[in-house]
Amino acid sequence: MPARIDQRLLTPFSNLLVALQALLILTGGAVRLTGSGLGCPTWPECTDGSIAPVATQPEGATHSWIEFGNRLLTFALFFAALAVLILVIRSGRKDLRLLAASQIAGIFGQAILGGITVLTHLNPISVASHFILSIALLAAAISLQVRVQSEIKDFSSAAISARVHLIFGIAVIALGTLVTGSGPHAGDAQAPRLHLKIHTIASIHGAAVAIFIAFTAYLFFTSKSPLTKKWLSLLLVIALFQGLLGIVQYLQGVPQLLVALHLLGSSLTWLATWRVWLSNRYVLSAPQLR
């Protein structure tokens, strides 16, 4: 009976884990867009001698609390990941232990990368690495969420087209970090920038997005799996909106609100892309207690 209770609790807690991983990405974007990246200028403390912001901080109270709030969310995420790991162990789901443990390890990795980012004064490579790790942890959390609700009966041999689609999705995100690292929203006015021509790297990113959308449409019309087609259709809608938003924000001089929406779209695009991959990778059945 306790194992069954833990199995039932895994569903809401795995959903919470996915939501918090996505929220961490969005709040990280808010830190950058509000210029609060060095609101807490040291690490692991917010300022010398204090974990929390202090009234006399020269960086300004608002920026300090925005950055500190993002740090606090990491603690909430850690406790959610710890709860999931405990529930996985108690429920007897040995197939989920590695995924659950990877969340704990990844969060510690995020804390270290976050510290490096602050101590290097928002070096764009550190910032990009921080974001890429967040994307990887979101993917792992989604995999855990899917496998909690339906056990893997078999691993299917994903077609080459599915692998290429996933690689294109990763490439689009990676190129997006280069655009961000070259653009105006660095998280702080004094932060270093990548020495790339913004027009060139944005054009390359845009071309990659166009190819990704076209390939997604191709897979939608050729796929035989109803589940895969469902996620491909959702991905097409999100990616088309994301591409249009990217064009508009570039023409408008990348205003903060549109950049924030673009970051949200990026997270949703990745979520749908990963679900497409999972639908090609796993043959799922109803979960069984072990």
Describe the structure.
Helix 1 runs antiparallel to helix 4 and helix 2 packs antiparallel against helix 3. This protein is 73% helix and 3% strand. The mean pLDDT is 86. The chain has one domain. It has eight helices and two strands; from the N terminus they run ααααβααααβ. Strands 1-2 form a two-stranded antiparallel sheet. With 290 residues, the chain is mostly helical.
Indicate the proportion of strand residues: under 5%
- Poorly predicted ranges (pLDDT <50, ≥5 residues)? none
Give a count of the beta strands, DSSP E runs of length 2 or more: 2
Instruction: Give the tally of structural domains.
Output: 1
Order of helices and strands: HHHHEHHHHE
Helix percent reads over 70%
3D shape: flat
TL;DR of this structure?
With 290 residues, the chain is mainly alpha-helical. The chain contains eight helices and two strands.
Give keywords.
about 290 residues, mainly alpha, two-stranded antiparallel ribbon, 8 helices, 2 strands, flat
List the helices and strands and how they pair.
Elements lengths: L1 H32 L27 H31 L5 H23 L4 H26 L1 E5 L4 H23 L15 H25 L3 H26 L4 H26 E4 L5
Antiparallel strand pairs: 1-2
Helix pairs in contact: 1-2, 1-4, 1-8, 2-3, 3-4, 4-5, 4-8, 5-6, 5-8, 6-7, 7-8
